[in-house]
Amino acid sequence: MLIKNLFDYILALILLIFLVGLIILLIIISSINTNQFGLFTQNRVGKNGRIFKIYKIRSMKGFSTSSVTTKEHNITEFGQFLRDYKLDELPQLFNILKGEMSFVGPRPDVVGYADKLVDEDRIILNVKPGITGPAQLKYRNEDEILAQVENPIKYNDEVLWTDKVKINVDYVKNWSFIKDLNYIIKTVYTK
Predict the structure, then answer these.
(1) Mean pLDDT of 130-159
(2) What are the residues whose beta carbons fall under 8 Å from the beta carbon of 74, sequence distance 6 or more?
(3) What phi, psi does 71 have (nearest 5°)?
(4) Are 8 and 98 in contact (CB under 8 A)?
(5) Beta bridge partners of 59
(6) Cα angle vertex 94, ends 122, 48, to 5°?
(7) 114 to each of 17, 84, 99, 166, how far by Cα in Å?
(8) What is the predicted pLDDT for the residue at 64?
(9) How large is the average pLDDT for residues 112-138?
(10) Which of 53, 110, 118, 179 is 20 to 30 A removed from 45 (C-alpha atoms)?
């Protein structure tokens, strides 16, 4: 794990040197596009169940209520572009530098999911969450999958989330630095 931590820190530092200008530009464009500050933060559950603020470039204008029970996300065209190319996640390089995240690991869940982990599944909380990993690669088109089902929240909770937990438990149990490098390469070269 020392190699993993050192790799994360050095790579994040190098990437930020080259990408900080792009991140600032995307935040400015997002601010104009969404009429809100372009850097989005949200509480997520990290290693050992600690709560931290994840950084993303804002891709939505917010929520609009079309009925009492339905909320629709207003993803802008620019926001969709950011999501398609995972550019909205570039600010997470700062999360890596702060020691809250890794390049590879289970995706950090919002509060309300990680606390549902029981028994062996809690092993996921023994590692830093990642920007990418096997579950993220498998469900790279998660938004499209959820858009095609009748009840996206139920489908996410009963199908996607449970499968991601299995994948992430396997990742933690069988971790290797070589596998991490492979996940990074697949992430870069897979759309």
Answers:
(1) 92
(2) 60, 61, 62, 63, 64
(3) -120, 135
(4) no
(5) none
(6) 15
(7) 33, 26, 19, 13
(8) 43
(9) 93
(10) 179
CA atoms of 100 and 46, how far apart (whole Å)? 7
CA-to-CA distance for 87 and 85, rounded, in angstroms? 5
Neighbours of 122 (CB within 10 A): 13
Split at pLDDT 50, 70, 90, the class of 72 is low
Q: The whole model's pTM is what?
A: 0.89
Express each pLDDT in 50-65 by its tens digit: 999 999 999 998 654 4
For residues 115 and 122, give the distance between their C-alpha atoms in angstroms, rounded to a whole number.
9
CA atoms within 13 A on the CB side of 82: 27
**Nearest CA-CA partner of 100 in 112, 89, 92, 110:** 92
The domain ranges of the chain are: 2-189
Per-residue confidence band for 156, with pLDDT thresholds at 50, 70 and 90: very high
Q: In 10 A of CB 188, how many CB atoms?
A: 9
CA distance 101 to 118: 22
- Rounded Cα distance between 172 and 191, Å, is 25
Sign (positive or negative) of CA dihedral 75, 167, 105, 46: positive
